[in-house]
Design brief:
Layout lengths: L5 E9 L5 H11 L3 E13 L2 E7 L2 H14 L4 E4 L5 H10 L7 E3 L14 H11 L5 E2 L3 H8 L6 H12 L5 E4 L8 E8 L2 E8 L9 H14 L4 H17 L29 E6 L2 H10 L3 E6 L4 E5 L5 E6 L8 E5 L3 H10 L6 E5 L5 E6 L5 E6 L12
Parallel strand pairs: 1-2, 1-4, 4-5, 5-6, 10-13, 14-17
Antiparallel strand pairs: 2-3, 7-8, 8-9, 11-12, 12-13, 15-16, 16-17
Helix pairs in contact: 1-7, 2-3, 3-4, 5-6, 7-8
Length: 391
């Protein structure tokens, strides 16, 4: 089995568990990564705000970073709250020579308004950390401060992101959640151009830790080898699903429901985890499902039985002689449907239906396995669990 990506998180601790190190660990774990931490500060906070901050000595921050890298190794780095100028310098020095993707979330102000970056640290962050960043993820107020400009709409945000790109990062993901309107736009700006990610605003007070969660999810995706745009798309989807799954805690800006995004055994309701479909030709069905990308974990040809594992841990079995073949429909979800169909077609699989948008807000492609069971490959995003027509 492939090892999980090792993600080093450099950020502050949130006693309320909604943001900072706590949100980052939840995110990386839910997305299949291994989270390591270098804590820069201990904050006293809850959904109502930050009431105190205790900074960790810069040399201890740097020692945490080196301890993780020297022994365990690292595949991606996420930098969040750094606090003061000395800590910025310590982090930059400790990461010198690190060649893995670095996601910089320039945390400056907490949701409740508390300053999380000292005035003298902003220039150090720009000079030392921005040039090291694979991608920097400012919200609108942070982008305005870093680019030294006013931002009133999406066009201003794009221009500011392009200006910030000139200061050294490989990419800028300018988040548009602070701008008015029912539609929000995040701009991904690179030296090769820009891409807009648009979505409907979610009307909720449960937004504590959205920036931390997005940056951690992005770092995990890059550590897993995803291309930048694909990592951004998955990270945004994770945040939106976590917002829609918020547990409703606290009287202020509530935390997200990170754990509810994935299909795991901690879910309070029954969890669908295994499906068995009839097969006619064991070898043909075995080859078909392996070609689809499922991982073979049980191979018992004498019993006509094989079991495969999907990316989220759900298992699918084939069984010769068990039931009537051709009656099942199997759904496999992906964020990269069209590219996947192109790859499978090139590998020799025939599709009964090319990818198309359906009325129920899923995008689907269909094919048939050797026993006549129907396979639906689909991309649904938030509409998988939160369609407008949900009961």
């Amino acid at each position: 089995m492939m090892s999980p990506p090792r993600v080093l998180i450099i950020a502050g601790s949130d006693s309320g568990g909604g943001a900072g190190i706590q949100a980052d660990i939840k995110t990386v774990t839910c997305l299949g990564g291994y989270a390591m931490t270098a804590i820069t500060a201990v904050t006293v906070q809850n959904t109502l705000g930050v009431s105190a901050i205790h900074a960790i000595p810069p040399e201890i921050v740097a020692a945490q970073i080196r301890a993780c890298i020297d022994d365990i190794g690292v595949d991606a780095v996420k930098i969040g709250m750094v606090g003061g100028a000395a800590t910025v310098r310590a982090v930059a020095d400790a990461l010198a020579g690190v060649t893995v993707p670095i996601v910089l979330d320039p945390v400056m102000v907490a949701k409740g308004g508390a300053a999380l970056l000292a005035d003298d640290a902003a220039l150090e962050l720009i000079e030392r950390l921005l040039p090291m960043a694979t991608v920097v993820t400012p919200n609108t107020p942070e982008l305005a401060m870093l680019a030294q400009t006013e931002i009133e709409d999406d066009a201003d945000a794009l221009l500011a992101a392009q200006e910030l790109l000139l200061q050294g990062p490989q990419a800028v993901l300018a988040k548009g959640g602070h701008l008015p309107g029912d539609q929000l736009t995040d701009w991904l700006v690179t030296r090769g151009g820009h891409v807009a990610f648009q979505s409907e605003r979610i009307a909720t007070r449960h937004t504590h830790g959205t920036g931390c969660t997005l940056a951690a999810a992005l770092a995990c995706g890059l550590g897993q080898g995803l291309a930048l745009e694909a990592a951004v798309e998955r990270a945004r989807m994770f945040v939106r699903l976590a917002m829609l799954s918020a547990p409703g805690f606290g009287a202020g800006h509530g935390p997200l429901g990170h754990a509810s995004v994935i299909n795991d055994i901690t879910a309070p309701a029954p969890v669908l985890n295994q499906i068995t479909v009839p097969a006619l030709d064991y070898g043909a069905s075995l080859a078909f499902y392996q070609r689809l990308g499922l991982r073979l974990i049980v191979d018992s040809p004498d019993n006509g039985y094989a079991r495969f594992e999907a990316g989220n841990g759900t298992t699918l079995s084939i069984h010769v002689g068990d039931g009537v073949a051709g009656g099942a429909v199997i759904y496999l979800e992906t964020l990269r449907l069209d590219a996947w169909v192109v790859e499978l077609t090139a590998a020799g699989l025939h599709f009964d239906q090319a990818p198309r948008d359906e009325d129920w807000l899923w995008r689907e492609a269909r094919l048939t396995d050797p026993a006549g069971n129907r396979i639906c490959l689909y991309a649904a995003g938030t509409a998988r669990r939160f369609p407008p027509w949900r009961v």
